[in-house]
Design brief:
With 146 residues, the chain is mainly α. It has helices spanning 2-12, 15-20, 23-36, 41-59, 66-87, 94-114, 117-141. Bound molecules: zinc ion.
């Protein structure tokens, strides 16, 4: 159902708008919700709301205001948060972002110890990124990525 609507929506917008609306993410989210809706009423509600919402997007025929894009992102964020909290799913690249942040702060500690902040930070970042990529790959393998 949603897939058909999404395909319809894609036809009304250009690539730039599609990436602004994070259509790929929206597609992955709706697929998730369709799998989860039988067991989770919140997912079911999100899915029903999304169907109505995608129809209103189609009706805009590619005419999106900044405000609409902003609200759109908030909407996706809200559903993503639910999927993360209730269904232990993570957004794509989640661990990489975490690893980067963690690696940077670790790097500052390294840097202080080595008396060379630049080397410390690049060391920390490479470790953090390596861990992040491996955790992302692991989550993907387990089918836990939104
Ligand atoms: Zn749910």
């Amino acid at each position: 159902m949603c897939k058909k609507l999404l395909a319809e929506l894609k036809e009304t917008i250009d690539n730039k708008t599609a990436s602004n609306l994070e259509l790929d993410k929206l597609e992955r989210i709706t697929e998730r919700l369709e799998l989860l809706e039988t067991d989770c009423t919140t997912c079911e509600q999100h899915l029903t709301a999304l169907q109505t919402y995608i129809r209103t997007l189609i009706n805009k025929q590619g005419q999106f205001e900044k405000q609409t894009i902003k609200q759109h992102k908030q909407k996706l964020q809200k559903i993503t948060t639910h999927l993360q909290k209730q269904h232990q799913l993570v957004p794509d690249g989640y661990y990489l972002t975490m690893g980067l942040a963690f690696g940077t702060s670790l790097g500052v500690v390294f840097g202080a110890a080595l008396n060379n902040i630049a080397i410390g930070i690049s060391l920390g970042i490479s470790i953090g990124v390596a861990i992040g990529i491996s955790l992302d790959g692991d989550a993907k393998k387990k089918g836990n990525v939104i």
